[in-house]
Give the backbone structure.
Amino acid sequence: MLGKCSILDGKLRDLSSICADGQRMKQIPTHIGLVVVEDTISCQDIAKIIVWSIGVGIPCVTLFDQKGWLKEMQHKINQEVTAYYNLLLSKEKTKMILNCRNGLVISNISIPGFSKPVRLNFLSNPDGRQDIITAAQKLCSDSNFYCSTVTDQEVDKVTSILHATHEFPDPELIIKFGNVDSILGFLPWQIRLTEIASLLSHRNISYNLFLKVIKQYSKCQQRFGK
Amino acid sequence: MIPTIDGDMANQGDSAWFPERKDAGFIQKLCCKIIKSGVIPKHVAFIMDGNRRYALKMKFSRIVGHTMGFDKLTETLEWCLDLGIREVTVYAFSIENFKRSKDEVEDLMRLAKGKFDRLLLERDKIDKHGICIRIFGDIALLPPDVQVAVANAVKISRHNNRAFLNVCLAYTARNEMTNAIKELAIGVENQMLRPSDICEDLLERCMYSGEASEPDLIIRTSGEVRLSDFLLWQSCYSCLAFLDIYWPEFTIWNFLWCIVRFQLSYEKIQDGKHYNNQMKKQLQLVSDKENALKEARMAGKIVNNNMDDLIEHYKLEREKRVNNFINYLHDKRIEFVNSLSTID
């Protein structure tokens, strides 16, 4: 089995086979969080994971590391994403038209499962607890907020004014990369029901390992307290 | 006199909080000693998941599963005391759990009431171990008789401070955070606070868990790998351990394994915490400077190079406001519990 995997890993996937893998899944996240708790970052490997995520049909990808290194390398990562995406696209049999927007390649082939453009979000420490504090300050300046009971309405109000994930759905899945058993402050409000998968490293990660995590997610069933 | 327990539970034998147990074996004692030579978490939180699935597997009724879950809890508390873990938080009942069938919710409420009433009978043991019981959650959502039972347990153990048992009942983290923001909004409305006074430390003090420390380790059983609206704020720098066994099957070996995971992640997590503390400090400095300047300008003061005194003065005033507010909230919560309790 291991031997077969390494042969498959050596072969460069094409975009349609990645899309097909995604289509076979019972459920695919609408938003995935890639939480890096390692000390060194490989832009190339991060770019691959981003492209695979988009390929299997995940329209929103959030990248997080506590100290903001990913934010600093945003430009380079976008370049690597474009390069890798083009590489995969070059293996496609038919020619596709490419659009470039803010350095992020968005293809206008119809990738099954998404009609909206892909969104990439880079977050770090200030986007976690501190974002909730900013929301709290805003709500406290709003004299309507101090009602006597906390209902779903008030909870939803908080959700709606958080800046870090404005107009993003809550992430259904996090992949944490690194040998630390903590997500170090990643979006505390938004991860209420998020599945947390852990991989030892993002460096030299194989597509098969990534797919395994997505497959695992697609099988899980939540009871929502019931 | 032991209170009568309804239905199935009568067959469950001793369901005390501090039952007599046989001594741990030599190997267990040795392993605990070895683990204790490394850093031990001061506060462990448990998502005690899988009681129903365990009951299904063993062909018991659901309520038997929950009762066995309670027994496992008391056993775990004893391990914690032996290991020197001074604070434990448990997710006993989520606000979402109210969505379960009426029968199951009633059974769970009856179980909760029975167990909290039972606590009063084992008061001497609670005092012997110096355990303070705290409830995190929207107590007003619970049936009135459970509210009373819970308030009594909190009141009789309030003076203790050697160990802490925090029970999340009618709790979700989002409700907790929103409630904390609401308390701050009341403070601002009553001019006890300014919006700019609101910071991470202050919000934390306003949560139900305001007087507790953050959990160092969170353990969830039953194979699910999510937090399910449990301690979302407080778990930012916690070691997360997910186990693939049902809660009633949780063993000391599972526990020691989780503690090993905690020890392995300890340094990196401490780094992470330290970084967050630095960021907090910086933000506070910037905020104090900005607000001191604003205040001075509004008062028509001429701001020269002597900003330090101005900032220091502003900071002290802010801390006074914040401390007053925290004391007011603390008193309000004690009042609330006292108003429910039927014990003097």
Notes: Residues 74-90 of chain A form the longest helix (17 residues).
